[in-house]
Give the backbone structure.
Amino acid sequence: MRKEVLYSLKGLYREDFEIEGYRFGGGEKSACIVGAMRGNEMQQLYICSLLINSLKQLEAHGAITHNHEILVVPSANRYSMNVGKRFWAVDNIDINRTFPGDVHGDTTKQIAAALFEKVKGYSYGIQFASFYMPGDFIPHVRMMETGYQSASLANLFGLQYVVIRKPKPMDTATLNYNWQMNQTNAFSIYTNCTDSIDDKSARQAVSSVLRFFTRMGILKYNNHSGYIASVINEHDLLPVKTYDGGFYRRLKEPGDPVFRGDVIGEVIDPYEGFVKSQIVSQTDGIIFFAHTAPTVMGNQVVYKIIRRMHE
Amino acid sequence: MIEEVVSIDLPVHERLVIKKNRLEPENVTGREKRISIVTGTHGDELDGQYVCYEIISRILQHPEKLKGIVDIYPDVNPLGLDMGSRGIPMFDLDMNRVFPGDNTGAVAEYAAAGIVDNIIGSDFCLDIHSSNIFLKEMPQLRMTEENKDRLLPYAKALNADFVWIYSSKTVLEATLAYSLNNMGVPTLVAEMGVGHRINNDYCMQLLDGIFNLMIQLDIWDDKPSEVRKPIISTEGQVSFLSAEDSGIFVSAIALMGTISVGTHIGDIIEPITGKVVQRIEAPTDGIIFSLREHPVVYKGALIARVYSGRKQEQI
């Protein structure tokens, strides 16, 4: 393992901002993993720490195949992580909305450009990402539909689901999208939390990456085969929205089966305690995403259901 | 008439309401031209508030001059404005990165889709911005290269000092202006001033331009007014001066405008060592139209933009 500073920015009174990378193996640029890009992505950082620890031991036992290099970048935004902000601490810009960056651009664009220069050119790019809505997912692999995506490759992670997302305009400046446009097979792995740590799903994410590396011939390793994934398009997920705002009582968890007509949530008046409205499933299926917060607004997506899917 | 464009129930007995004020002639024929004025996408940008007030006030003083429909959207991010927050509070999302929105998406996307749906059908839209808290801007209009043939005639009517046509590759596709232009509504972005402030002179200048454009669009009945002939700049004619190191920027110029090559624009200093880490000078004769306002800078922070297309131009 070689630890190196991939990018450095002089701090005025803080210690210098650095993006550190951990290289394993050597030779061909096989795989790059990027962890926390935002300051609240604690689970994503935790997964990287577990992965680096595993890769360190595997490398010591000669398990990394000859002529394969793996680069792991645990955090691209430690300045924000240390002050409890999601985005770049100075001007609140989301680094994951500034790719591919610009070496002559503003600070965050320079950071994105410098990082992209270091992480591009790999055959496989894996990002531990977080979603822009607060909630829990079934752990899954996500790919953008850019024309370069390969669901069959994503299947090799052995997670239950592969989700294909048609990029929205706001996605075009993400690392995942730009990786793919630059001929890297890019995957985002979502576990079931962001601000907190869930050890079980973090270990599941690490296993899925090691499984993928084994199947691609990057690692010599023996682990469980995992699942044969169901591939779903994001637009086929049925969003279930609230009618009213208030306290939110979630009645189903990610992975739970639901049937048309089931009451799957309730919104409660925050002053008088009565149930203002019930949230009813409009389809049979499996809960894929579930909102997590004590309150909800009206018209808020609280579930996404995989339609007509059964356990 | 004040109408609700989007209404969203908040958790604790309050609604988030995005409103517009529609002003129209007394007798509507259905053939009227329609202009939409939008502002407040970023809660820290306030010049648009004064512009909206003045447009409505002037129209109400002379309702007989109104021949078309004027839709004023004074604040499309009400929670952000209330908190002085650039993004949408609670979601930490930049509203100008979620357009054209999505009725089935997150609350911010739902709101964005509602705004776009409401504006569609306008003959022209002006999206008024006030930079941010970091940079101050001379009054300017912005458009992309691919839209310049369609948008320049509107821009020339708007009494701006400066029109900046920038490369399409740097365009953010999730902005309101990009989405509306894509959907057939000619839309210009006005930038001026600095975040958290109102610059009266800039507002009045734009206001005169808006009324002049409304005359040209047959929405306002008045004599055409004299407007400034803007400098029209393309991407290659603009120099970006950025911080080469982190420090505190101290400006050496009081006003934006014409500068000569070598003019001392400011210094980046390092207080703890008492040293100047970067002296910033004008690389060319030209016009400085953006200048750093917030002193704390990291490497890469934009200090100034200088237009070098026409030398020694007086504006």
